[in-house]
Amino acid sequence: MTVAAGPRRRKNISAIEEEGARQDLSSPPPLRGRSPAEASAKAGGRGVSSKVAQVSTPLPNPTPAQVGLARLAHDKSKPGQARVSRGREQVEQAASPNIDSQALLAWYDRHARVLPWRARKGQRQEPYRVWLSEIMLQQTTVKTVGPYYAKFLAQWPTVTALAAAKLDDVLRAWAGLGYYARARNLHACAVAVVERHGGVFPDTLDGLRDLPGIGDYTASAVAAIAFDADAVPVDGNVERVVTRLFAIEEALPAAKPRIKELALSLLPPSRSGDFAQAMMDLGATICTPKKPACSLCPWNDVCLARERGDQETFPRKAPKREGKLRRGAAFVVLRADGHILLRTRPDKGLLAKMTEVPGSAWTHDFQLKDAEAAAPLDAAWRRLPGTVTHVFTHFPLELTVFAAEVPRATKAPEGARWVKLAEAHAEALPTVMRKVLAHALE
């Protein structure tokens, strides 16, 4: 996820950048956000060429042949056109005319989603709630996040309360939400806000980025939504909207800087927070990955991909490298008095500090015949039919599960502990371990 940010101001000129975004080729009214050159210049020109040509008169509407991509000769950029790097060649893209950000805001005023972390109309956004929801929503759906958000808010209603919590309690509350580094960073960030800022979130992009676990996207989202700062958070929904609107042929992730730049160019003079949420809502409810409802879109008459009829093919994506399969063994031990053997993973690495059943290392060359050598104690182990599969970000995992029952007097091996089976659900068990327990106990 990427971020675009820049101060709020407008110029009455068109601009052409060497590496910039497409420009308006239409007659008045002009693009009603900001030109990419202006937006980038106002943001300090990061990653954008400073060479700018000014055009004093508007150009005629683009013809269909101008829409999309055309080879660009090696001479200087023509007025009203922008050059985009495409490996060994450069191509030009004609801008979609008259992209009215106010039309999107008007649509948002009528159709905004009602979400638990959004303030009602006329109310101020609470930075803590915005931040908490944005951390949870990374790589996770709104439907999944809802119950977790409510649970966290009930248990820790303020950033000060969260900072005072034990990390183990935070991990337990997070269990099942995935991407567990987020939970550790969430707690570290809350502590930093209390210790460095007296429990008040900073209201600048730089101040937010300086906090643990907050990158460009989250800083931009909190700055825009909570403080109405000039920022455009670019998540997957926004990437889809922008790549279709401008028919960006460059594939992700290489296209991210250009998408960021174009998203910023659409930023209206006011209501940055509403604009950010409107872009997200448009992508989530109208400009969906499959079968987008283009007839209901406030920008359907200026969307280049819709005009071409290939909107579902955007954004372009580079082929994904699939991680190599890893295998391992998991050992579920039940004691006669209704306890289960669990242990805590190391402080660093994948699923750090989370709870698991004992098991072998997860490797590419795991051999089933060697599995019982990793067993936590001597017992009459039986191999359960089938396997447990799980996909992490970088690799898929396949676990063979072994089960055993042991006498009540059995002591836990070093590094493990007995936990009442009825209370195991309260442990910080990641999803893969919950799958293992379900497989063994069903």
Automatic annotation (TrEMBL):
Keywords (alphabetical) are: 4Fe-4S, DNA damage, DNA repair, Glycosidase, Hydrolase, Iron, Iron-sulfur, Metal-binding
Q: Which domain of life is it from?
A: Bacteria
Q: Which reaction does it catalyse?
A: Hydrolyzes free adenine bases from 7,8-dihydro-8-oxoguanine:adenine mismatched double-stranded DNA, leaving an apurinic site
The enzyme's first-digit EC class, named in words, is hydrolase
Q: List the GO molecular function terms.
A: 4 iron, 4 sulfur cluster binding; 8-oxo-7,8-dihydroguanine DNA N-glycosylase activity; adenine/guanine mispair binding; metal ion binding; oxidized purine DNA binding; purine-specific mismatch base pair DNA N-glycosylase activity
GO BP terms, alphabetized: base-excision repair; mismatch repair
**Which SMART domains is this protein grouped with?**
ENDO3c, FES
Domain HhH-GPD positions: 136-285
The record's section on SUPFAM superfamilies has: DNA-glycosylase, Nudix
The Swiss-Prot or TrEMBL record describes its family as follows: Belongs to the Nth/MutY family.
Biological role stated in the UniProt entry: Adenine glycosylase active on G-A mispairs. MutY also corrects error-prone DNA synthesis past GO lesions which are due to the oxidatively damaged form of guanine: 7,8-dihydro-8-oxoguanine (8-oxo-dGTP).
**Name of the molecule in the record:** Adenine DNA glycosylase
Organism, by scientific name, is Pseudolabrys taiwanensis
